[in-house]
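Weekly structure sync - notes
Attendees: PM, LS, DV (DV joined late)
Agenda: review two folding runs queued last week.

Item 1: First target. Sequence and structure tokens pasted below for the record.
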Amino acid sequence: MTTKSLENQAQWWRKSTVYQVYPRSFNDTTGSGIGDIRGLTEKLDYLQDLGIDIVWLQPVYNSPQNDNGYDVSDYRSIDPMYGTMDDFDELMDELRKRDMHLMLDIVVNHSSTEHEWFQQSRLSKDNPYRDYYIWRDPAPGGGVPNNWQSKFGGSAWQYDEATGQYFLALFDKTQADLNWENKQVRKEAADLMRFWADKGVDGFRMDVINLISKDQNFPDDDGSIMTGDGRRYYTDGPKVHEYIKELYEQVYGPYDLVTVGEMSSTTMQHCIRYSNPEEREFSMTFNFHHLKVDYPQGKKWELMPYDFEALKGLLSSWQVGMNEGGGWNALFWNNHDQPRALSRFADDGQCRVASAKMLATTLHGLQGTPYVFQGEEIGMPNPNWNDISEFRDIESTNMYRIMMEMGKTESEAFDIISKRSRDNARTPMQWNYGGQAGFTDGTPWIKVDERYPEINVKMQREDPSSVFHHYRNLIALRKTEPVLIDGRYVRLDEAHPQVFAYARINDTDTLLVLSNFSSEKAVFTLPEDYQSVDQGKLELVSGNSDQPPVWGKQITLDAYGSFMWIIRG
């Protein structure tokens, strides 16, 4: 796609920044120890000051909370732990007053087994709701229908004694996969999204949406392709694009919604199709390949130092490929399912501030819509964990047990969980240096990181050199600099062992980003085209130090140094 056609198709959300709110840990107004909807409403001025356009609110529906709200038991009601529908309506009103938008998380690959649909489906094989889910007879010799594995460990099949069949549950055993082959299921999904769109919701984040179409033969995985856990038979499945186009025609298009698809184990070609406007599917897509560069042989629950060259290569290839195919990236380092990027890819100790700013500059210079996960904008690291009892995440506790059963020592298993757990991202937002970091007047549902007196919003808003103000500047730049939206990506660093360097180029300007990902000084030799730049056209627009490097043939970057220039004209 040419730069011109990209400009013609540009939507408002291409200049926007999304802020992800994990409500349970954001702001508690009741003293329950759990964040709530009114807690978000209370902080909208803060988000507006940061420059946020879109707030992504994770699930607040009724749920037994086995997977922190991603196990939905009623899609049209608010879980009392988060408040009421009146609270939600108030949130929508306050967002409109600030010209901000709400993106609501939708979970339609599966529902809770406590959902009325599933409760009906297990009454008998003849129940009208039986076909809302994926039921199969035991294997001919008895046991599970195939060898597919749950994302949370163990078999993906759960046995129901009352009807003598298994149901598919790719995640927790209480999250039953919905049967999208059933037209009525697809209608229910569209109807529930219309319900929220009618309330004024401006968009949806679609949870693991590329898993909704399964190979209807349900074959065993022979292990010939890496992982061998069955995902090849339900990832980007045979009818997935057909189903998403249905949703676009029925909901996304008519309501002019901004949408992002969470894509598990996907490919670039699929993401181009999912997000190219001509395909009429999603506005943009998440992919997770760059967050697996510290997985040895793709194994999440093993440890290794991250592969810097792989990280750069993946980010670069997706920048080039998505642009050429007319797709659009959702840019992110962090979310509720990942350890903090600051602790994974940089220094969360002595160089924490420089590291946080470096990661921000690197990401926000790329093409796509940036996502900021709560706390990222103040440089929150992984918390310090002391004991396995401090963890709340069902995936983490399951894997701790499994690793122990497989022969790892308590120390080995605990070390892995401490670095890999989703709970690293889920500790409470650190608002101030008062009790419980200002998150709650009660006992928080999960521990607050002990470093909150030194890392909190209050201190950083008062400090113009803080991580917060660095993010604020980057978010503002995206609204005013067209090259950040339409500039084509060119990688410049040629496998430098410390530096990630790239340019973004449009018809008038060139944006240049240089980032040192190491704890040592780095010397980077500029490509010849940039060595003789007219200094009068060179503007430093972002940097993580008040002493920027001297422009010349070679540029020296301090530990975790990161700078963004625009060459005008």
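Item 2: Second target, run right after the first with the same settings.
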Amino acid sequence: MSPALAALHGQPVIIGAGLAGLSAALFLAPRPVVLISRAALELDGSSPLAQGGMAAALDDEDSVELHLADTLKAGAGLCDADMARRILAAAPQAIEALLRIGTAFDRDATGALALGLEAAHSRHRIAHAQGDGTGREAVRALTAAVRAQPSITVLEHVDVRRLLVEDGAISGIMLAGHVEGAILRTRQVVLATGGAGALFAHTTNPPGSFGAGLALAARAGAELADLEFVQFHPTALALPGREGGRTPLISEAVRGEGAILVNGTGTRFMADVPGAELAPRDVVARAVWAQIQQGESVFLDARACLGPRFATRFPTIAAACAAAGIDPAQALIPIRPAAHYHMGGIAVDPHGRSTVPGLWACGEVASTGLHGANRLASNSLVEAVVCGRWVAEDIAGHEAPSPARRVLGEMPPGADAAFARAILSRHLGVLRDGAGLHEAICALLPRAETPGPASDPALVGLMMAISALRREESRGGHWRTDFPAPAPPRRSRLNLQAALSAARAIAAHAAPLGHTN
């Protein structure tokens, strides 16, 4: 049973229990805090599914500056270099913090942390656990520490439907679940709700990752940044007859071990590309997509580099393949691109503060400037822990404000992403163009403006489409076939009112002459 909500009024609230939310809650201790999870702890969001690991300059032959250089190169000119340097410099301490609470990272024969190599990294710097179970192991350790901390109140199976705002600042949240219809009054809210991959038919994300935190923040008045940049992982398991739903990921670390990409004729189509299979993810994803568009099947071949060692090094992936009747030691693994990570998010400052007083964000839902136009592999779990800590320190460094006055609001329905998913999958995939983005905006606008289950996912999709239409260039995870060249680098910012105004203008222009709504 959850405690009476009346006893929790005025406490900081963290929404989301992946690595970022769990870290923020734990680093706030011993200050009382409420942690809200849509699922049972250890099952919330994408963090438990993360395979690759955590990137940090841990080796004597590595450095923060080398890690930074790789990050900036992958980010294609849109990283905030100062913020990236600050986060990456804190990465080793984040891993040390996880080790202290009992995270069992893999070790080499000498007892040192085993460090792997992934695409676009110039050094072996990926700390991993259980081979390809890093996220699951880190979440396990953090969850155990959170449950053992008496200052943290955990509300599981609870959905936050709205952030309440009074005089331009956060005043509370609306909850649904086993506290149906409840309002929790608070002046301090942290969004750690993950990404938006479930807005696409093929994704490595769980069904709940449809940008709920982005919708909450946008409707509260917060600015969002770089929404057009979606990273499509190039090697998700392609299951025949399976369209939609979460697709098992084949970690980039498999290619780091030497696996190659081939098409149905056996041609290694990445051989002449700089970096080959370990080129930045956007480059590999477009190459795979081009093969599929030409009618080819695409496969990952790990037989020569791993063979019988595959199941030991990558037990989670091996199990997913086995469930599909595939033995990676002896057979090719069919793959395709799938929506994996959203580089855009809630615009935050170095402390994790949004543009709305009382609202912080960390993890994938936040846009810190670390990832730029294309996230470097395994930087995200580190960012979640580092920024979760910084948010906690910022909140703890200020006296807790008095609870808001009694606030009211109308409970929105639960979200259904099906309508938005069909549109985004068609028009905001690996390749985009202006005509398709216009079509997406006109289709999404009515649903975004109409209360109902489709409203929040449609709103997030609409803001992504507006941002993508405004960026008339190709860069990183955003590739316009009608604007294939890069333009001078700029970051994008957008709020709800600006997005709706732009969408209405586009819809009005698209309407047939003589027809008005």
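Discussion on item 2: The longest strand covers residues 333-342.
Action: LS to circulate a short write-up before next sync.
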